[in-house]
Amino acid sequence: MPAAVLPPRTLYDKIWDDHVVDVQDDGTTLLYIDRHLVHEVTSPQAFAGLEQAGRKVRRPDCTLATVDHNIPTTSRKTYKSIKTFVDEPESRGQCEALEENVKKFGVTYFGLSDRRQGIVHVIGPEQGFTLPGITCVCGDSHTSTHGAFGALAFGIGTSEVEHVLATQTILQRKAKNMRVTVEGELHEGVTSKDVILYIIGVIGTAGGTGCVIEYAGSVFRNFSMEARMSVCNMSIEGGARAGMVAPDEVTFAYLKDRPLSPKGEEWDRAVAYWKSLRTDEGAKFDIDISIRAEDIVPTVTWGTSPQDVAPITGNVPDPANITDAMKKNGVERSLKYMNLAPGTRMEDIKIDKVFIGSCTNSRIEDLRSAAKVILAVKDAKVADTVNAMVVPGSGLVKQQAEAEGLDVIFKRAGFDWREAGCSMCLGMNPDQLKPGERCASTSNRNFEGRQGPGGRTHLCSPAMAAAAALTGHLVDVRKLMGGAATTGVTSVEQIKLTNSKDYLTDTVLPPPAAQPGAELHPASGKGEAAGPVPSNVTPFKVLKGITAPLHMPNVDTDMIIPKQFLKTIKRTGLGQALFHTLRRDPATGELTDFVLNKQPYDKAVILVCDGPNFGCGSSREHAAWSLYVVPLQGYKDGACADGGQDGLWDPVGDRAVVRGHLPVQLAAERASARQAAGGAVHCAVRGRGGGRGARGGPGGASGAAAGRAGRVPV
């Protein structure tokens, strides 16, 4: 019989279909995972779970680990060990735990003494570990970076990290297809960072919720791999599960001859398959957005959400011109935190620090872009009021940059030249903003306190960041370039361009992993090492209690649990971290008027959030662990954000409970969270036969709720 003719499929459809292991009647799918990247923050509890259960890593050959989030980026000339190099005890503990775990389980590891060490989303591509058509996961939401290669790449929580280590599979529900097409020619001085910031400004931080975005059009086809990675990196800031660009000759040229790329005949076969990874003519997208390239100018954020963007030629918004009450309140809150007056010209905003780095913008092309701005200004110097740092994305990027003389250009102008690491992107390490300091940053998130408690972040491109460093304020980089494109200034010859592949070395594989029963130990059933897991929590059917209302949209995971509380190797003890930056003034440490600080809400067992996009941002599962002190929490107006799907909610949606919380969306028309204040909400959880529901209690709650139920029968 002739083979069945498949309907037109998207790039996402094709990769998904090629990795399905099993599909349940309700759509829950077991996917095979080709590549797993591991770092020190989201892996300790996962490895502890393996050890307790007496399991080994199923595919150590498909797993690559490094340290990046916690580490200092100061000089390593005298580096001897993690113990002597990392001063902060909890950070040191996570790094040492990873070093021990990679030895115990036989996982390839790039440590601080290895020049291949770097940010996890930089080292994967540069080693050829990331390939078109693969599935790739990591306990970090910006795993979407790897989608630039035509891969399905997304962040996962610690429980999923353990599951992938043990089984090389993960449970998912298929996302919707979304396409963002940008056609035309970009203006001079406009970079990939400006493009993705503009896109997020158009679609909003919830615009891609429940979707995988394919970036299409001439702009992306003309981008380098580094530029494509910057775009895909910030897909999560647009609410998406992942972002991807179809592989092409640019992709193949980048990957050829990298240490972990296919070789010889295998390369030829791989390229033949990769060329099939394109969206078919006539394939359907659930959401289709078109943008004109000529509408994009250098773009900067003004507020505390990546969607708070403005052209550098524009102004800070005035909430008086906003009619929607929740949006107006959000803008007012952002302006207050950022200490900006409505209508302020973007170019009048003075800055204190500049950070060029992160998994968004720390590759060689990014550093060249910033260096060219410096070269375009005669006798360029960092402004006296500014402290500026450049942090390469990996040891190999640093080595190449130094071979090209970029370090000399930066240091001569007064920039601090650092070692590889996540650095000031999230401030889990010593590189942080002080309360009230304002930073022009090439990172990906401008949440409250993201770069340090009370710190204020303006996201921008490397070129724009360099320009801000030289002038002391946000400025249109085109003014410094004299109208020349940042990729074609006359001083480009002063940079000795080299090929990144000249700095690569063959990957050294680790010794064989220990087998269960050797160094590993059978599960005790007590779970002391990793803390109690949700499956050990006593189930319930109905929960009643005081309801605390939270009237706020876009409650991100940095709000729920700030990054400084992620430095733990356990699942427990995070109650005091919950909403820490909202409950305490970052400058004084004094208690604020946040709802959970007030009576009777300080004894609330239910939290109802009436704003959309609850749980957006990071895939940190720690956010869910901290919520154990609030047995029920929720959101309304649509599903939670995809970052929250990893960190707070089970990735298979409303079917199961993995982290001890059951998301229950309450009908908006029944009442508001204000009506629920001080009242009670009854959350009824039933078995598969009876379904599951929630009904308003005496206070008449609305929004959505999630119960601390343990593993509820479903």
Q: What can you see in these coordinates?
A:
The chain is globular. It is built from 22 helices and 27 strands. The C terminus is likely disordered. The strands form seven sheets. Strands 5-4-3-6-7 form a five-stranded parallel beta sheet, sandwiched between helices. The chain has a five-stranded parallel beta sheet with strand order 17-16-15-18-19. α2 crosses α6, α7 packs parallel to α9 and α13 runs parallel beside α16. The protein is α/β, with parallel strands linked by helices and 714 residues long. Pfam families: Aconitase (PF00330), Aconitase_C (PF00694). GO terms for molecular function: 3-isopropylmalate dehydratase activity; 4 iron, 4 sulfur cluster binding; metal ion binding. InterPro entries: 3-IsopropMal_deHydase_lsu, Acnase/IPM_dHydase_lsu_aba_1/3, Acoase/IPM_deHydtase_lsu_aba, Aconitase/3IPM_dehydase_swvl, Aconitase_4Fe-4S_BS, Aconitase_4Fe-4S_dom, AconitaseA/IPMdHydase_ssu_swvl, IPM_dehydratase_rel_enz.
CATH fold call of the largest domain: Aconitase, domain 3
Q: Tell me, briefly, the overall form.
A: globular
Distance between the termini: 41 Å
Could you tell me the radius of gyration in angstroms? 24 Å
User: Could you report the average pLDDT, rounded to the nearest whole number?
Assistant: 83
What's the architecture of the largest domain, going by CATH?
2-Layer Sandwich
Find the structural class using helix and strand composition. Answer: alpha/beta
Number of strands: 27
Give me the side-by-side strand order of the main sheet: 5-4-3-6-7
